[in-house]
Write a structure and sequence with these properties.
Layout (H helix, E strand, L loop, with lengths): L17 E2 L1 H8 L4 H6 L7 E5 H5 L6 E6 L2 E9 L1 E5 L2 E5 L3 E5 L5 E3 L5 E8 L12 H5 L10 E3 L1 H22 L4 H18 L9 H17 L6 H8 L3 H12 L3 H19 L4 H7 L5 H12 L3 H10 L1
Parallel strand pairs: 1-3
Antiparallel strand pairs: 2-9, 3-8, 4-7, 4-9, 5-6, 5-8, 7-10
Helix pairs in contact: 5-6, 7-8, 7-9, 7-10, 8-9, 10-12, 10-13
């Protein structure tokens, strides 16, 4: 379910900071005159830039954050490394990486690459040339979708001219000719969608559906639901059925997915807030600070306090 700010249900209630494009620019992009030539008026709705031009202006590292918009990166040369959710992804030439709105992401390095970066609100898809149903068709824009898309030579030969046309139109006119921008952009997403492969494309449909619903519930109700039985009840299936389905599709147990999600939320809070360790624990729904510290250390190798001290030193 998408709410008025284009975020998955539950995100708005979190104390983790979610950045609009404007506030992300203020916090993580160098205040140089060059950025004003790259981002036109109304850039909070849509912008397209060359990856190699924008990355030079980013204040690195970018800690775990969320954005109200989707981000799409396509490379023509080199590689790009980004952590999305709890997984780190590397893409190369003729590949895309997608960060859905509301998903946690971070990156630390100045990668050597070339390509294109689009940042966009759902409104760029829903309009004169698009319908709300398209959002359901583009699985890569959902938090449980596969963020890495390999296009290959043929589809790259289709999408590259579209990226070039979009960049030229945006550079020359911004969003003045919105109908032109939107028509090319929807065509671009449709072409990319031809190459998209779910992370579990070859596995049985029922298990995939259960796993995707579990991930969506995990994303929206993590603070109040920490047990496999909680999610099984919400899905009206047995815990054993949920465990078998999620393991078959992802290779990880529901318990591990829950633990990793808790730790990820905690890491964002430790970066963004002055909350004490016990307060951070409470924010992720754990009221035993010692248990929280043990869980955090199990996955990160350091305690929450040591993690915060590492942040402060960096």
């Amino acid at each position: 379910m998408i709410n008025a700010l284009n975020l998955p249900a539950g995100v708005m209630k979190s104390k983790i900071k979610t950045y609009s494009v404007e506030t992300f620019r203020e916090s993580y992009i160098q205040p140089e005159q060059r950025i004003d030539t790259l981002l036109k008026a109304d850039f909070g709705k849509f912008f397209i830039v060359k990856v190699e031009e924008l990355i030079r202006l980013i204040k690195l590292p970018v800690p775990p954050v969320r954005s109200t918009n989707h981000t799409l990166i396509y490379l023509t040369e080199g590689e790009a490394i980004m952590t999305i959710g709890s997984e780190t992804h590397t893409i190369f030439k003729d590949e895309c990486l997608v960060v859905p709105a509301g998903q946690v992401f971070s990156f630390a390095s100045l990668d050597l690459n070339k390509g294109y970066l689009c940042n966009f609100h759902n409104d760029m898809i829903i309009g004169k040339f698009g319908k709300a149903e398209l959002l359901k068709d583009f699985e890569f824009l959902r938090v449980w979708g596969n963020p890495r898309i390999t296009l290959g030579d043929q589809i790259s030969s289709y999408v590259l001219p579209l990226f070039k046309r979009l960049l030229n139109e945006y550079t020359e006119h911004g969003l003045t000719n919105l109908a032109i921008i939107q028509s090319y952009f929807v065509a671009l997403l449709c072409e990319i969608n031809q190459a998209y492969k779910p992370m579990s494309a070859s596995l049985q449909t029922n298990a995939v559906t259960i796993t995707n619903r579990f991930k969506e519930l995990l994303f929206s109700s993590l603070k109040t639901n920490h047990r496999v039985t909680d999610y099984a009840s919400l899905l009206n299936i047995t815990p054993n059925h949920l465990n078998k389905s999620v393991r078959a599709i992802t290779g990880k147990s529901p318990t591990k997915w829950i633990d990793e999600a808790i730790v990820l939320e905690a890491k964002v809070l430790l970066h963004q807030s002055p909350l004490s360790i016990s307060e951070v624990a409470a924010e992720v729904g754990i009221f035993d600070a010692s248990y929280f510290s043990r869980l955090f250390k199990k996955y990160e190798g350091v305690t929450p306090l040591q993690f915060r001290q590492m942040i402060e030193k960096s």
